[in-house]
Amino acid sequence: xxxxxxxxTIRSIRDASRGLVRxxxxxxxxxxxxxxxxSGVHALIEIEAHSAMTASVLCTLLGLEKSSxxxxxxxxxxxxxxxxxxxxxxxxxxxxxxxxxxQGTVAAIHAFATSQVSAALSRMExxxxxxxxxxxRTYTDALHAGRTDAPGIERPGITIESGYRSGIIxxxxxxxxxxxxxxxxxxxFEAQVAAGLAAFVQRLDKPVNGxxxxxxxxxxxxxxAIDGEDLGAGLAHLRWFIVDDGQRxxxxxxxxxxxxxxxxxRLGFRETHLWTFRGLDAARHLYEANGFVLDDEQPGRQWGxxxxxxxxxxxxxxxxx
Length: 321
Prior knowledge:
alpha+beta; Arc Repressor Mutant, subunit A; Aminopeptidase; 2 domains; 7-stranded mixed sheet; 3-stranded antiparallel sheet; 10 helices
């Protein structure tokens, strides 16, 4: 039986979803300033994004039946937006690609969508932009998991590795930049992340400092560090905690944080501090689940944009009240 609170949450999410569908124009016969139906717009974007697209792959990406995708592809080919070419490896399979006309259509779609989203974001505070981004991504991932809950190709396992790893500075800066650029952070922020981490790795020979990376198929997909020097004796600073977009919600972040906090406990730090921004609710839940408590918040511009900065503190178990 569904509780009253959950029932109200479901109703509110459904109301918000209907509003989002209306405002984005999905109830109109065409979408994004084109003469194409929503399914056609999405198909063109996916074809542009994948170099070896087939109708079968398009079925999976769009969540549509084979017959529906077949009719959709035929319309796009007839309209001169898409071309079909026999695959070199399999003569029965045809690769889909954009024609010159299709490339122009997709460019116009991106311009339309960018303008639409930018106009909405301009009416929000930075923290609200982060809330929207995190919430939409989490909700979309949950819906996708429910729709595709069937055996499939297993992803390679993620390992957590300690210490400096070749490429970690660039990858951590790249992952940070990819996430925060959506809320207005740019080159200044990325440069600060890279410079700070580059200086820190020179101090990894000190036993109070630690660095961990989440690695999948030899590629770094997340990082976290403990700086045991910059806040003073007995205080640990949790820094550069980030996980790649495709890994959020999959446990990599929890494992990285667990490694870092276990390190703090082993070395006997009195407190562990971290700084973040208001609006990162998913991260805040993770911090609070691991003993962090909001200690202070105030406006700040150290990253190039004005945001509400928050400091969370986790006390050692032995010193907790």
